[in-house]
Amino acid sequence: MAATRGRLDRHEYDVTVEWTGDLGSGTESYRSYSRDHDVLADGRQGIAGSADPAFRGDPTRWNPEQLLVASVAQCHMLSYLHLCAVNGVTVTAYEDRAHGVLTMDDGGGSGRITGVTLRPEVTVAEASMVEKARTLHGEVPALCFIARSVDFPIHHEPVISVQD
């Protein structure tokens, strides 16, 4: 990896997706196997994954669509907190109830994520920080690695409040 001014200009991420859904006859038919799998990375707790229940998945496990929406929300939050820290906005609480939409193609065989709406509820330390806190959400898309990598719209509906 090459370094630029003391920083790495390339980061790599390795994960393992291990299918755990062989019910005894493998993928002999569409209904003969489970969609269960584990998402693994060195030194981290695994994530129990499956397909969306609409696609014969286990509703108690994370599905790829949820993980994509979570990635968008996480990246937005982390980029936003950075912007707040360097712009004098003290955030004391942050929670986002993100929502993603998967739209099926006309043929019904596939689909795509067509949008994500982020609804961050942010608490700041002082009333004088509210407007700047709201404005900084608009600067996040230029920084967030995930937002810069996807081709669907990401909408922001932030609610800013002041700590009691």
UniProtKB/TrEMBL annotation:
SUPFAM superfamilies: OsmC-like. InterPro entries: KH_dom-like_a/b (IPR015946), OsmC/Ohr_fam (IPR003718), OsmC/Ohrsf (IPR036102), OsmC_Ohr_Peroxiredoxin (IPR052707). It comes from the Bacteria. PANTHER family: OSMC_OHR FAMILY PROTEIN, OSMOTICALLY INDUCIBLE FAMILY PROTEIN. This is OsmC family peroxiredoxin.
